[in-house]
Amino acid sequence: MTTKAKSYALNIIALIILFALLFSLTASGSINNYYSGILVTVGISIIMTVSLNLTTGLLGQLALGHAGFMSIGAYTSAIITRNLQGIPFGWSLLIGLIAGGLFAAVCGFIIGMPALRLKGDYLAIITLGFGEIIRVVIENTSITGGAAGLTRITRMSRAFSPDAQLSSAVQMGIVFWIMVAVIASIFTLGRSRHGRAIISIRENEVAAEATGIPTTRYKLLAFTLAAFFAGIAGGLYAHQTGILTARYFDFNKSIEYLVMVVLGGMGSITGSILAASVLVALPEVLRGFASWRMVLYSLALITMMIFRPMGLLGTWEFSLSRAWQCTGDFLKRTFMRKERKPKLPFVPHYDVWEDAPVLETHDLGIVFGGLVAAENINIRLMNNEIVGLIGPNGAGKTTVFNLLTGVYSPTSGDIILLGKSIAGKPTHEITNNGIGRTFQNIRLFKSMTVLENIKVAFHTRMHYSPASGIFRTAQYTSEERGMDIRARELLRVFDMEDVADANANSLPYGKQRKLEICRALASNPKVLLLDEPAAGMNPIETQELMETIRIIRTRFSVAILLIEHDMRLVMGICERIYVINYGREIAEGPPDVIANNPDVITAYLGIPEDVHEERAQHAEN
Amino acid sequence: MILFLNQLINGLHVGSIYALIALGYTMVYGIIKLINFAHGDILMIGAYTIVVTISFMGWPIAVAIIVSILACVLFGVVIERFAYKPLRSSPKISSLITAIGVSMLLQNGAQLIFSPNPKPFPILLNAPPLNLGPLQISFTTILTFAVAIISMISLQGFVSTFKMGKAMRAVSEDMDAAQLMGINANHTITATFAIGCGLAGVGALLYCMAYPTVSPTLGSLPGIKAFIAAVLGGIGIMPGAMLGGFILGIAESLTKGYISSQLSDAVVYGILIIVLLFKPAGLLGKSVSEKV
Amino acid sequence: MLKIENVNLFYGAIHALHDISFHVAPGEIVTLIGANGAGKTSILHAISSLIPYRDGEVIFSGKKLKKLPAYEIVNMGLAHVPEGRRVFGRMTVKENLDMGAYTRHDTKETHADMQRVFQHFPRLKERRGQLAGTLSGGEQQMLSIGRALMSRPKLLMMDEPSMGLSPILVSEIFSIIREINQEGTTVLLVEQNAHMALSVANRGYVLETGRVVLEGAAKALLNNSEVKRAYLGTA
Q1: Which residue, A170, A237, A616, B144, has fewest beta-carbon neighbours within 10 Å?
Q2: Does C159 map to a domain?
Q3: What is the pLDDT, as a whole number, of residue A612?
Q4: Measured between CA atoms, how close is C70 to chain B, in angstroms?
Q5: Could you list the residue range(s) of the whole structural domain that residue C102 is in?
Q6: How far is B112 from chain A (nearest CA, A)?
Q7: Using CB atoms, which residue from B163, B166, B180 is nearest to C70?
């Protein structure tokens, strides 16, 4: 806590110094109206870029209609301040900005609901479409002044004081502090459980859902919030320029902000700030080159992308406290805060009867476009049982896992988890009801740390709200600490505490597999599904894994269903085995029975009948 | 009825231009999965080449047309080689931003050379319109439609019979597998850019015959419309691009005729949104779910 | 004919292949067996230049393949049937086969080779006008093998031809592999179905976590107790 307090203090002091400097320079005229105008534009662009970075960088969804939300905020706030003449301008501006943000957020929500079902380029084009529709609607509505636009909007720089120079400084101050507030909110949100949920979607949407994150809801949250901030930026823009035309907010404007985000580095807020500042200032600096300037600008952009495709800063963030660690020692004592009592993640209680299965399927099946991928699958898993699911590659084993976890909806049959049907439920709900899983091709949240990977899985076991995360309330602090403690405990069980702060993709292969199991256990499942846990492991590692699986079973009291090709492992630890081939169950029983079942040998082990008979004779002799 | 038929003919006229440009868009997308934002600006290159060769240098029309198409091909190939190829293994969004950069470069470069003021596009042919009872169809319309249809048919023929054409389809389906067949993916990609941009050159000619002013930003609007057409039909799918182009052109001109010309853009985007919501991969596209 | 010497391959921080060395002599069927993730597919990808490897050499017919682009390697007579078939789904069966002969210019002989492929796989002949994406899994596997044969390879590499196929189809595919070999094509077979692979192969290599841990005649490996326990599921 103390280092955190120190870093807060450092940041606030630095901001105040920066503000005081800019304010006094503008007020005294050292920064003239032209330059302060550029500074205000930089500030507004930073708000736009940082908020777009929330959708594009943190959530990882390409959106091309951000300027549309800006225009909604701009027009809303301008119409409000034009019509609210009775009260002081300061108040009507405040109301206008907030209303603009909220209305943009509402539109963002309405647009996001259908649009966010699409991905990648399709999402890009549909958001571009919505952005353009917003523009056309504004151009054809009378209250917004139609194509001619709105003029004589009260300018911030005219409104506060008769002295032009001083009110330029006031305008700059307003934009400065709103910009700081937006950056700080997005920054703190990004470091809360909600931010981790959003980032986990970027890293691996399937795994995020399987870790219990309601991905649709979080996509919508990020998109709506980004629209809110864009709306506020629009309001500021309207009252900076005093005139609005819808054409200003066409898709080229959206693209301009997207360029800033990508150039700065997707996911890096520092990068967004830097890129927005540079790209707004660059054309001004190049003014001397007259007509060459935009050519130089575009050449610079192309060159940058070719040589730094990940953007200027990648995902790196500047931290004042890191840069300045030693100077703030005395602040420690001044800002010492009481340690919050940690609140541990909630552990769900499962009603388990001794002899009832924890997981059971009835004639489960799925057809993909006429192709039967699985049919009549009847699997039962008793409490604390370790069961194997084997069959040749392509037999439909992973399909069964995908059915059990709701990645696919079954076209026939039912799945009963702890007495309740879960067939057709969304994956994240199934995860929260007690099924954890790993993936055949490891799906970690690669650029997040080991600890964060696990914290994502605690998501639904915690309660603090996004607002709580943004403002870092007491609830945020105690719950975050609780997650930290639990996550480290869990890592200790797997001997991975030493790599807690390493990036997941820097781990060696074996540890990545272990981390995936760890993450699956973090949501406290009653049933754990392991998809080829031993793939890529050598015999010694496999031996250790067998031990680990046994420990997991007793320590976490879970039933385990595992897909595996390594027969040493399957025969060694499974109490029962199901064999499937061609999407159908062909055998079930204890290992020794399965190993000698002629159907299994033919199908799975691929021995032709005659060889098998030969063998049987051989065994008899 | 007359109004309807007239608007329909207009729609087919614009639609066939969109379809032609959309084909280039879709071919490039199909093979390197890049939204080539600079594709529209290739049109502008073609248009200026005609202006320069005919209005300034007085070359014969046929030569000028060939030179302008070649200029488009050359630009396309050079852009691919120097701007997109280095980024082939980078995140897609980096290539997208590069494409935006290339588009800006072409527009601003043209502005530097030709000034932002629009230039008149030379009149290439002067033929009387065709009268079908009360209907009047301009010769340009007939020519545009014919050229577009012929180009599309020859392109279809090329990709289904010629070795290089089939190689293009193979590379756009599965680049690794195509290389295992002995197909040089780089050459194939270059060829795709060449053909796509050549079609844009033809599109430029037809577009400027319909709207005879040339400015540095000439390509933006038809570019974005063609892109929408490509997505509408299912991006990466050639018949889809044609279908999308015609739908877009007809929808646009019917809106202009019956509702209002200001709203035609909104209708176009509205159609796009509705199609994507119900068929997320476009009219002819198949959605593929991620393998887990 | 094919010689792999101390190949090391990395995926980012992960060391996927450790000093892999093995060879394939003309006329042989050699198999690489091992669990999923042992590195079998990576080896084939390295040989075909689909992924770069850090050091080591791949020598085919006396020529070093390192840094040659993938499309030139096919031209030298090394064909690769990739894992998961990877047929061109939106092209017809015939067009897929044409693609297999992409590097060849001898139209007449190519035509004869297509007839030979149809002899091996009569099903493909029936469906030659059909889009490959509409074929069943077994037919796609046949097409993938047929397509590779169209380049008239000296060495045919196959990656898990049995994947996802019913037992009957698996034995059909394996008898065709034997036929192809008897017609003079050398085969390098990567398989997870160890028993099937070892029963057609002359020699085999066992892979574990990117290392060759065992090698020998296929018969000997079939009877090796370690192999039996790990891959054949019998003690």
Answers
A1: A616
A2: no
A3: 44
A4: 6
A5: 86-152
A6: 6
A7: B180
